[in-house]
């Protein structure tokens, strides 16, 4: 049977899996036209695999055909490797040099062409098997990977001579990325459930990198803090700005969808 749809009607499905909940977005890959079907709440008493199995069974959108499927794993179990130092046969060795070994996990990699880096990340074997069986051609990403690629492109386009730090907030964690001379200098993620802890990690990274309070730039994204929390950071870093989906990604309709994750938007822009 031939597919009668026109090229601009080809759809891409992006699924984001996190301990905080699952999200999915469908969009026309040639237009960036998106509809977010949000959110599948997870049972924290169940394993990731058990929640994924229920998600696959109960979500009607996942039973429809899509030309492309992307699966983003929101995890802090990742490590960046410079592209020139990466060898396929050393994947596990490089991963476990930086992270403690766990049983029953699969180590995957994302090669980031814009950033000249490789992100190694893990997913438990049963979850990986369930998703691979359901979506045989799916591409797996650490959720930090498209964020790195998007922010690398952003920094290069703006050609700032100042250093830039980006803090992407999530309900139970924070991602911190720093760039100097349009090149990735730092990427790390921290578990933190309250804003005081997130601010601590952010300000500590700023200090350790020797960033300049008066000259360098800080951007806040994701589940951005309330006004009083932003004002707290501005006491230490005057050049603090919030990146909102509509102001940052206004060229694509998906940016107008409430609560769409920053990493899904980054993936759409980097496609």
Can you walk me through this structure?
- The protein is an alpha/beta fold.
- The chain has a domain at 158-245: Protein of unknown function DUF3822, C-terminal domain (Nucleotidyltransferase, domain 5, 2-Layer Sandwich), CATH 3.30.420.260.
- Helices cover 30% and strands 32% of the residues.
- It has 8 helices and 13 strands.
- It has helices at 48-58, 91-98, 125-134, 144-158, 195-208, 227-236, 245-249, 262-270, and strands at residues 11-18, 21-28, 33-40, 68-73, 78-82, 105-112, 117-124, 139-142, 164-170, 173-180, 183-191, 217-222, 240-242.
- Strands 3-2-1-4-8 form a 5-stranded mixed beta sheet, covered by helices on one side. It has a 5-stranded mixed beta sheet with strand order 11-10-9-12-13, sandwiched between helices. A 3-stranded antiparallel beta sheet has the order 5-7-6, with helices on both faces.
- Strand 6 (105-112) and strand 7 (117-124) form a beta hairpin.
- Helix 1 packs parallel to helix 3 and helix 4 packs across helix 8.
- The longest helix is centred in the middle third of the chain and has 15 residues, at 144-158.
- The radius of gyration is 19 Å and the shape is globular.
- The chain starts with 10 loop residues before the first strand and ends with a helix.
- The relative contact order is 0.15.
- Residues 1-8 have low confidence and may be disordered.
- Tell me the name of the CATH class of one domain: Alpha Beta
Q: What is the annotated CATH architecture of one domain?
A: 2-Layer Sandwich
**Largest beta sheet: what is the strand line-up?**
3-2-1-4-8
Q: What sort of overall outline do the alpha carbons produce when their principal axes are compared?
A: globular
Major sheet details: 5 strands, mixed
Strand and helix order: EEEHEEHEEHEHEEEHEHEHH
- What class do helices, strands and sheet pairing give? alpha/beta
According to CATH, the fold-level topology of one domain is Nucleotidyltransferase, domain 5
Low-confidence parts lasting 5 or more residues at pLDDT below 50?
Answer: 1-8
- Give the N-to-C terminal Cα separation: 28 Å
Global Rg: 19 Å
Q: What value does the average pLDDT take? A: 88
Helical content band: 25-40%
Determine the number of helices (DSSP H or I, runs of at least 4 residues): 8
The CATH superfamily of one domain is known as: Protein of unknown function DUF3822, C-terminal domain
């Amino acid at each position: 049977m031939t597919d009668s749809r026109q090229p601009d009607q080809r759809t891409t499905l992006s699924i984001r899996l996190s301990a905080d909940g699952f999200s999915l977005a469908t969009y026309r890959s040639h237009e960036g036209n998106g509809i977010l079907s949000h959110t599948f709440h997870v049972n924290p008493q169940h394993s990731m695999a058990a929640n994924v199995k229920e998600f696959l069974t109960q979500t009607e959108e996942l039973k429809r055909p899509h030309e492309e499927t992307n699966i983003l794993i929101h995890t802090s179990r990742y490590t960046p490797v410079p592209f020139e130092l990466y060898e396929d046969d050393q994947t596990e060795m490089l991963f476990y040099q930086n992270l403690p070994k766990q049983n029953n996990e699969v180590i995957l990699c994302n090669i980031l062409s814009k950033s000249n880096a490789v992100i190694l990340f893990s997913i438990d074997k049963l979850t990986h098997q369930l998703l691979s069986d359901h979506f045989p051609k799916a591409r797996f990403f650490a959720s930090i990977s498209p964020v790195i690629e998007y922010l690398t492109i952003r920094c290069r386009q703006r050609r700032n001579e100042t250093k830039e730090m980006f803090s992407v907030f999530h309900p139970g964690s924070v991602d911190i990325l720093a760039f100097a001379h349009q090149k990735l200098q730092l990427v790390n993620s921290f578990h933190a459930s309250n804003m005081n802890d997130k601010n601590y990690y952010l300000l500590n990274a700023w200090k350790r990198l020797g960033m300049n309070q008066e000259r360098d730039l800080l951007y806040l994204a994701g589940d951005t803090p309330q006004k009083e929390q932003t004002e707290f950071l501005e006491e230490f870093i005057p050049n603090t700005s919030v990146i909102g989906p509509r102001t940052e990604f206004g060229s694509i309709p998906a940016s107008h969808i409430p609560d769409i994750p920053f990493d899904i938007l980054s993936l759409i822009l980097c496609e």
